[in-house]
């Protein structure tokens, strides 16, 4: 069985670090913690789990800090997490099985990353990241912000999920501006952004309500026609969200349709187009798009995934649209399907009650 180093960079994570490390301490063989300037008890907590706690002077470069942590690892494979990530019990079991069965031909393992959840704790926003890599391949991190691990060779796609459990809210306001400020500092220094930088800078602008500027940079990213196809699709979706915030529904639908240039319509795109037609009471057109949303296989989508758009949400909208079209039987049918995904959803239960009273 191969041995695994866990590498983590941290700063002021005293509220979450113990929970994170406790979830993996018995399935890794080495823990490497790199502290980038904590002023709380983060380092003391880290030392409860490992002697390998290192200081690193923060220089607005996440990749540099992560590469520093990787250089301190000594085991066969390197596994990385953030301090507010955990492995749930089911995924711990899967990880142990992977550790027992992995062969040295595997250069990297991608895992799911669940970062948002509904009120029932079901993942609502997920994507894949390369989490476990062979140390001797010397893969490196790239990008000062929204960094990525540049891997190659034989990559195994695993069903193991890392769960994001953010608990520390004290510094949210400061942290929320951090990435945007790093990007703007780099621009101010005359740095030329890569296509990936432009995409993530656009996202930061959108998240900070600078919608017109975000649209400008999304278009700049798409005009370059470089970078990952999934990022191009997400750029179109995010640009559509900017237009919606600006009240420009015509350009919103144009941006959504543009995403189809890069692949089949993502369920989120189909649902958002369906929503636009539904708002205009064009129910037949809305139905076509909602039906398309549930027909696309999402298993192999490598980019961002919001499962609601391929499960309960389009079925709930089909329920509404068919009722408005006078097809009560189909309306009831689709509400039942939606309930299979969300059995306690108030809107779905209200529909059931409405149907019972209507046909009484």
Automatic annotation (TrEMBL):
Question: Which Pfam family is an annotated match for this chain, by its short name?
Answer: TPR_8
Indicate the segments forming the Glycosyltransferase 2-like domain, all copies: 5-141
Q: What CDD domains would the database entry show?
A: Beta4Glucosyltransferase
Task: Return the Gene3D superfamilies for the record.
Answer: Spore Coat Polysaccharide Biosynthesis Protein SpsA, Chain A, Tetratricopeptide repeat domain
Q: Which InterPro entries match?
A: Glyco_trans_2-like, Nucleotide-diphossugar_trans, TPR-like_helical_dom_sf, TPR_rpt
Q: Which UniProt keywords apply?
A: Transferase
Q: Name one GO molecular function term.
A: transferase activity
**Entries under PANTHER family matching the protein:** GLYCOSYLTRANSFERASE (PTHR43630:SF2), POLY-BETA-1,6-N-ACETYL-D-GLUCOSAMINE SYNTHASE (PTHR43630)
- Its protein name is Glycosyl transferase
Species of provenance: Ureibacillus sinduriensis BLB-1 = JCM 15800
Which taxonomic lineage does the organism of this UniProt entry have? Bacteria, Bacillati, Bacillota, Bacilli, Bacillales
């Amino acid at each position: 069985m191969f041995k695994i180093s866990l590498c983590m960079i941290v700063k002021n994570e005293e509220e979450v670090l113990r929970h994170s490390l406790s979830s993996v301490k018995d399935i890794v063989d080495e823990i490497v913690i790199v502290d980038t300037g904590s002023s709380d008890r983060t380092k003391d907590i880290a030392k409860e789990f490992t002697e390998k706690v290192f200081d690193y002077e923060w220089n607005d470069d996440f990749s540099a800090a992560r590469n520093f942590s990787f250089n301190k690892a000594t085991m066969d494979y390197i596994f990385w997490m953030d301090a507010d990530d955990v492995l749930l019990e089911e995924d711990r079991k899967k990880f142990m099985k992977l550790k027992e069965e992995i062969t040295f031909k595997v250069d990297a393992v991608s895992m799911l990353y669940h970062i948002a959840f509904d009120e029932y704790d079901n993942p609502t926003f997920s994507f894949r990241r390369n989490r476990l890599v062979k140390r001797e391949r010397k893969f490196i991190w790239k990008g000062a912000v929204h960094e990525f691990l540049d891997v190659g060779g034989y990559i195994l796609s695993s069903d193991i999920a890392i769960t994001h459990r953010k608990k520390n809210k004290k510094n949210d306001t400061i942290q929320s501006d951090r990435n945007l400020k790093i990007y703007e500092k780099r621009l101010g220094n005359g740095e030329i952004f890569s296509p990936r930088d432009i995409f993530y800078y656009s996202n930061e602008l959108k998240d900070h309500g600078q919608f017109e500027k975000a649209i400008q940079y999304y278009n700049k990213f798409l005009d370059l026609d470089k970078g990952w196809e999934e990022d191009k699709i997400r750029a179109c979706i995010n640009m559509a969200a900017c237009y919606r915030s600006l009240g420009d529904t015509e350009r919103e639908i144009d941006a959504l349709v543009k995403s189809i240039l890069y692949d089949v319509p993502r369920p989120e795109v189909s649902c958002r187009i369906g929503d636009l037609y539904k708002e205009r009471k064009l129910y037949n057109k809305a139905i076509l798009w909602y039906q398309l949303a549930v027909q696309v296989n999402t298993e192999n989508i490598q980019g961002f995934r919001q499962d609601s758009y391929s499960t309960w949400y389009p079925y709930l909208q089909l329920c509404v649209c068919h009722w408005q079209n006078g097809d009560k039987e189909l309306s009831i049918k689709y509400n039942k399907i939606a309930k299979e995904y969300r059995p306690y959803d108030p809107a779905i239960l209200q529909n059931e009650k409405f149907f019972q009273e209507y046909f009484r």
